[in-house]
Every structure is written in structure tokens, then in C-alpha cells.
Amino acid sequence: MKVRIINKSGLELPQYATELSAGMDLRAAIESPITLSPLQRAIVPTGLFLEIPAGFEVQVRPRSGLAAKKGITVLNAPGTIDADYRGEVCVILVNLSSENFVVERGERIAQIVLSKVERMELEATDVLSSTQRGEGGFGSTGTK
Fold first, then answer.
1. Strands of 88-95's sheet, edge to edge?
2. Taking the domains of the chain in order of start, what are their residue ranges?
3. Is the CATH code 2.70.40.10 the one for domain 4-9+20-116?
4. Residue 88: is it exposed, middle or buried by C-beta count within 10 angstroms (0-12/13-18/19+)?
5. pTM, whole model, 2 decimals?
6. Could you check whether the bond before residue 53 is cis, i.e. omega within 30 degrees of 0?
7. How do residues 40-84 score in pLDDT, each as one tens digit?
């Protein structure tokens, strides 16, 4: 699937790290470092603009290494880039650690995944079909 891209970052285009990678890494297209204090968030530009085909979205997801090792994640994960959006792709990063984190220019801060989207048609009703689970949520099926 081809997705058209404009790259104003001055950095290399996103690419898959391995042959079977699901996502491409996004890099921070910033002129000077950004320091994220604990619990601070920032919108980090990538310098990239996408033309996503109709029927698809691009999801912005955290990088597992940054999350596990540094406590840095994407605040609205997964973030959705709609097919009709033509603005710059930006990443909302948040620091969930107890230490400052410095985002440097060109640093891989998130990943993007192309995903097919099905549109739904809502049908109003007064009754839903029953299931074994019913209305149980938030841990109702247990942990083991």
C-alpha cells in the first residue's frame, strides 16, 4: 500500500527496522532539545505530512523501548491520523518516569502503523442480545 508523504524534517523518512516490523519509527524534527520533566507532556513535530488512502488510518503508537526503559509514552495511544488530515504529524509525548527526559533532534520517539478502518452504521434499539459476560467490565473476567 503506497502512502504519499511530504518530508520537511530534514531527517530520513520513516522506515521499518526489520522485515517483519509492523510499525515505522517517527523521529523528532525539533531544532533544539525538549526537556520533559516528570508527568510533563509535549507535542513534538515530525516534519512529515501524509496522504492516507480512504478506508485507512495511521496509528501513532509508543516505542516499547522508550516506555519500558525511560517511562516515555504517547499520551493518546494509539493516536489516530484520519485519511482526510493533511497537517503535520505530531506526537504527544508524556514522561511517566520520576526523572527528566531530553528529546533530541532525530530521536525515534514513536511509531506509525497503517490500519484499515471499517465504518459503522448505528442502529437505535431498546434491547441488546445477551452474552455470558453481560455488563461485566473492568476486570470482571478475573486476572488468572
1. 4-7, 41-51, 88-95, 72-74
2. 4-9+20-116
3. yes
4. middle
5. 0.89
6. no
7. 999 999 999 999 999 999 999 999 999 999 999 999 999 999 999
